[in-house]
Write the structure tokens for this entry.
Amino acid sequence: MKIIITAGGTSEKIDDVRTITNTSTGRLGYAIGRAFVEKYGDSIEKIYYLHGTRAAYVEDDIVEPIMIGGVADLQEKLTELLTGEKIDAVIHAMAVSDYVVKEVTTLDRIRGTEDPADKADLSGNKISSDIDDLVIHMKRSPKVISIIKKLSPATTLVGFKLLSGVPHEELIEVGSGLMAKNDCDFVLANDLREIGKDRHRGYLINRSGGYDTMETREEIADMIALRVMEKGRSFG
């Protein structure tokens, strides 16, 4: 089997030294990678581990770590792997930026009140820190999860959905909606309220509408690995 795991968060460049990112640590993706290696390593030829700049990766002979910058970088690498090789499963745990930087400007420039004699210089590799009222114009990023099954319909896809402070029924409903929209085989749904230092409750939803309930990050990782391997074996 060949598997792709995405983990951590993407980072969108403002200039060559500044980025916008999210708080994802990549710990769940790391736990998933470790579960595959430790429990099913003999059955896996390769794990392509696409990880954010701050996320650790599992060190093993079958793991090929690939550092990812922004959303475009992630989309390009997934496309390359899914069209160039037979990928049996994608576990898409990465927290992908919802917005990417379109342009950087200033409030005075937007208002048309910028003094031509004191025009802010936004060129170069690093924007000056002397500029007042810097404005970052962002645009929506593409939904990378939506391309996976289009590029490789036979690949088992595990999606992830994190909400905060919603009723349990809504969490399952939204997770199921993500599954239907992107042709996922499983979706791990969790609520930020149920995640703590020693606790991480998750619900692994399947296509029948049922779900497995786990109470820790390790249990989630083990269950995802188990369900993916079971599905792979059922198709030979």
Remarks:
- The longest strand covers residues 99-106.
- Residues 11 and 21 are 4 Å apart (CA to CA).
